[in-house]
Fold this sequence. Notes:
Blueprint: E1 3-6, E2 10-16, E3 19-26, H1 28-36, E4 42-49, H2 54-62, E5 66-73, E6 79-84, E7 91-97, H3 110-113, E8 117-120, H4 125-134, E9 140-143, H5 147-152, H6 154-161, E10 166-170, H7 171-178, H8 183-191, E11 197-201, E12 207-211, E13 215-218, H9 232-247, H10 252-269, H11 276-279, H12 283-297
Parallel strand pairs: 1-4, 1-8, 2-6, 4-5, 8-9, 9-10, 10-11
Antiparallel strand pairs: 2-3, 6-7, 11-12, 12-13
Helix pairs in contact: 1-9, 4-6, 7-8, 9-10, 10-12
Amino acid sequence: MGILVVGSVAFDSVKTPFGARDDILGGTATYFSIAASYFTDVSVVAVVGDDFPEEHLRFLQQRGIDLSGLERRKGKTFRWKGEYGFDLNSCTTLDTQLNVFAQFSPKLSMSHQTKEYLFLGNIDPDLQRSVLQQMSRPKLVACDTMNYWIENKRDSLAKTLSLVDLLVINDSETRQLADDPNLIRAARKILLMGPSTLVIKRGEYGVLMFSNQSIFGMPAYPIEDVLDPTGAGDSFAGGLMGYLAAAGNWSDASLRRAVVFGSVMASFNVTDFGPAHLGGLTFTEIEARYREFRKLAHFEDILEKYA
């Protein structure tokens, strides 16, 4: 089956209270594809400049990721620089250089057009729909967005949301999109916009999933040494979509398991700068942490004498 992800491949310069790194591999499509590659085949459609090193390409290819849709253009690769506060929940963007990404216009090959699972990274909603128009009836379409598109291209974003099955955004974006401070009411409003499922990323507080049938919540995995949360949301989405593609369905039970697998991938992501640790896991480690999550969230039913 396999997944097609359309988004950014970038260089990140990150500073947290626990260290700093310059020009490390980053971008939505990077973190997503690495996380998803543990579950299914992944193809990337993105653009990089002629400054993008071969070692990064080899790193992604070693995970079996299809890079035939990674366009290389003359110029510099997209660069982002940010700094996190002590609690790591908020990030200040210090610099954004779109470079070749500013002219990104995804063109899908025939093999990409027939992928059954599609993830649209948080690019311009006009571009998200242009990708959808090139696809041949994918089984499941998921997307991400960000505060900039919600504020500046709301009408276009609304058109995109009417065409997707699954929306993955964070809690502040949920409130902004629905114009409601209450997450429960906000989620219900967003479900009326088109997606049948909404997954809300809440950082160290875990994740909430809403559908017309149910509400599901998971805590974040308790990590003692969190170094860098960059890419955690994208690796979460990669684990979630990767599992759904491998399962071949998106029943409520599959969606719940997918949320846990997404949380597993995000928990590994935050323990290092960049995607190196994420890309060096074994599936045995992933399964073990899934089971740890299950223990973390498990509790017994009410004792009979209290029933």
